[in-house]
Amino acid sequence: MKTLAIVGVLYLCSGLWCAWQPELAAGFLGFALTGSMANSEFFSVYGGLQVGLAVAMLCCSRITAYIEAGLFFSMMFSGTLFLFRLISLVFYGFEEGALVALLLLEAAIALALAITWRRARAQTLNLR
Fold first, then answer.
1. CB of 86 closer than 8 Å to CB of 36
2. Which of 7, 37, 71, 92 has its CA at 20 to 30 Å from residue 113's CA atom?
3. CB atoms < 10 A from the CB of 32, how many?
4. How crowded is the C-beta side of 102, counted as CA atoms within 13 Å?
5. CB of 22 within 8 A of CB of 39?
6. Alpha-helix residue ranges (DSSP H) falling in 1-128
7. Alpha carbon 87 to its chain's center
8. Separation of alpha carbons 1 and 128, rounded Å
9. What residues contact 31, with CB distance under 8 A and at least 6 apart?
10. Is 75 within 8 Å of 113 (Cβ atoms)?
């Protein structure tokens, strides 16, 4: 499943960037890592969580029985991430162009996953 694999690769790249270049990645997002605890948390949550999601998406994209569920989970995750980013920009402002770019990327990802999930779901229902 190409859509799930592409999104998985995007998450993998982002997670690895956060793990290997935490100061640079954090700075892009407006964070200042102020000590070992902050570095550890950023490494774990931004690096580890994204790599974990990527591995799950990539595995689901390769196993036919998991594709529909993988698409559904990824669609829900990405849609919620988009929604929370949108709400945060309304509350905290659109000062940084990078955050608007991330919002648009997350919207495109969520939409692509939703369309692909609907197609997979329709195909599953037609097989029954």
1. no
2. 92
3. 8
4. 19
5. yes
6. 2-20, 22-28, 36-42, 50-62, 67-92, 97-127
7. 17
8. 21
9. 38, 42
10. yes
**What is the reported pTM?**
0.90
**Which residues have C-beta within 8 Å of that of residue 36, sequence separation ≥ 6?**
none
Residues 117 and 41: their CA atoms lie apart, in Å, by 32
| pLDDT tens-place values along the chain, 128 residues long | 899 999 999 999 999 999 999 999 999 888 899 999 999 999 999 999 999 999 999 999 999 999 999 999 999 999 999 999 999 999 988 777 788 999 999 999 999 999 999 999 998 888 76
For residue 78, what are its two tokens? 């990405």
Q: At what angle do helices 50-62 and 67-92 cross, to 10 degrees?
A: 150
Please tell me the predicted confidence (pLDDT) of residue 102.
Answer: 92
User: Of 11, 10, 34, 9, which is closest to residue 22 (Cα–Cα)?
Assistant: 34
Taking the C-alpha atoms of residue 70 and residue 2, their distance in angstroms, rounded to an integer, is 12
